[in-house]
Design goal:
about 40% helix; about 250 residues; Nucleotidyltransferase, domain 5; alpha/beta
């Protein structure tokens, strides 16, 4: 039976910039109400921290990109990042467009024998995608169960490693399993917003795909296997996927 494995990672942004002003005003009013004295610099730092924290919540944050690597019976069919303009290679921030592309891409997913694979996938990436889809009124093309203690159709490397007992970062797990860490280049999820503000879109795409490839390596280690080499032959590019990083991803992390 033909079966697919979809390795997945998302990168998110805080809410729109206007929200930062709203947060600052709310904090200032809160301090006045509580008769607390705080200088403007400290208040601005508090507002910035709360604003950035919004990227972790599907109610407020936004999906910048969805990194995917899709295999079928060991052959890589597609890989790349959704959310970028084909010509400029810049992230277009049209979240609804990115979500529609994602649900179209996975429409033939069969929960009975296909797998979504990711790190903290059950608690972050997939719920975030579902929440943003509801907000944009984009109906998912498939139904997934988020029940705990399962490895089909969602294989969460974090929970599989810890036997559903505690959390561990992908970086720490990669180090434990002697797998190249996606954080080795110095970029983490905490840097994504700053990189976006600086226009360093290609670095975000490369980091996102390093996460995806690392998850693939970890998945195989958890199954007492060695991950097959990444071979670009026969790959169908994703809509808005990046080019150089997708073609050189294997070399980039090893």
């Amino acid at each position: 039976m033909m079966s697919k494995r979809i390795y997945l990672d998302i990168e998110t942004l805080p809410p729109t910039e206007e929200t930062k002003t709203v947060i600052l005003q709310a904090l200032r009013q809160q301090k006045l109400t509580m008769q607390e004295t705080i200088n403007d610099d400290d208040l601005a730092m508090m507002a910035d921290e709360e604003y950035r924290n919004g990227a972790l919540h599907g109610e407020r944050g936004r999906i910048l990109t969805i990194g995917l690597l899709i295999e079928e019976n060991g052959a890589i069919l597609q890989q790349g990042c959704l959310g970028r303009d084909r010509e400029t290679r810049q992230y277009h921030l049209d979240e609804a467009r990115t979500l529609r592309s994602f649900w179209k891409l996975v429409a033939d997913f069969k929960p009975s024998h296909d797998l979504f694979i990711g790190h903290n996938l059950l608690d972050f990436d997939l719920p975030f995608i579902y929440k943003r889809s509801i907000i944009h009124q984009i109906k998912p093309t498939i139904h997934l169960s988020f029940r705990r203690f399962q490895s089909q159709p969602i294989f969460d490397t974090m929970w599989e490693w810890s036997c559903w007992r505690h959390r561990i970062s992908l970086h720490d797990l990669a180090q434990a399993l002697a797998v190249p860490s996606p954080k080795a280049a110095g970029v983490t999820g905490d840097n994504v917003y700053d990189l976006y503000q600086q226009g360093r879109h290609e670095e975000i795409a490369q980091y996102c795909m390093r996460d995806v490839v690392c998850v693939r390596d970890v998945f195989h280690r958890l199954r007492y296997e060695t991950a097959p080499p990444l071979l670009p032959a026969g790959i169908t590019p994703l809509e808005n996927s990046f080019t150089q990083a997708a073609n050189a991803i294997g070399a980039a992390i090893r």
